[in-house]
Design a protein that fits this description.
The protein has eight helices and six strands, in the order H-E-E-H-H-E-H-H-E-H-E-H-H-E. It has about 150 residues and is α/β, with parallel strands linked by helices. The chain has a single domain, classed as 3-Layer(aba) Sandwich (Rossmann fold), CATH 3.40.50. A six-stranded mixed β-sheet has the order 1-6-5-2-3-4, with helices on both faces. The longest helix is centred in the last third of the chain and has 11 residues, at about 100-110.
C-alpha cells in the first residue's frame, strides 16, 4: 500500500477484509487538518463527496491544528465542498489524549459513515516512523473503506 500511495501519484482505496466497498457511499467522513495532503484527498474524492447524501468534515483539536486558513475551523473546506454540490457538516472533535486516528475512526462509527477520506503525510519521513501516519493506525483499526491521497 505504501508503494502505491507514495510512488503512484494516485489515491488509494483501502477496503478492510469482509467489507463491501462502494464508490457511491451515502455518508462520508473527511478527516481534515488544512494540510496539502488533506486538500489533495478531497480534490481526488470530489465526485464521491458531491454524490454522497452527507459529508461530515471532522477536525481533531482544530485550534491547535488550524493553520490560519479559513474564517473558522473547517469553514474553507465546507464552502469548497458546498460549491461542488456536497451536503456538508463540520464537526470539531477533542482528542482527550487519544490519537487523531482513534478519534476519527470512533466518530466515523458514531455517525455510521460508509467511507473515510483523508490525506496521508507528504513523504516517507522521520515523522511517520516516529509518530505514525494515518495509514499506520487505519489499516488495522477501521472497519470502513479508507480513501487516501497525498
Amino acid at each position: 500500500v505504501n508503494g502505491c500511495l507514495f510512488d503512484s501519484g494516485k489515491p488509494v482505496l483501502i477496503v478492510p477484509k469482509g467489507v463491501k466497498a462502494t464508490l457511491s457511499p451515502r455518508r462520508v467522513l473527511v478527516g481534515w487538518d488544512s494540510r496539502v495532503e488533506a486538500s489533495r484527498a478531497v480534490r481526488e474524492a470530489l465526485s464521491i463527496l458531491s454524490a454522497a447524501k452527507e459529508v461530515c468534515v471532522a477536525m481533531v483539536d482544530p485550534k491547535a491544528q488550524n493553520n490560519g486558513k479559513g474564517a473558522q475551523s473547517g469553514a474553507d473546506i465546507a464552502a469548497y465542498l458546498t460549491r461542488h454540490g456536497a451536503r456538508v457538516s463540520v464537526d470539531l472533535l477533542k482528542s482527550a489524549g487519544k490519537s487523531a486516528g482513534t478519534v476519527l475512526t470512533q466518530h466515523a462509527n458514531d455517525i455510521c459513515a460508509d467511507m473515510m477520506v483523508m490525506g496521508a503525510y507528504g513523504s516517507r519521513g522521520l515523522r511517520e516512523r516516529i509518530f505514525g501516519g494515518p495509514p499506520s493506525w487505519s489499516f488495522g483499526k477501521t472497519t470502513l473503506p479508507l480513501f487516501l491521497a497525498r
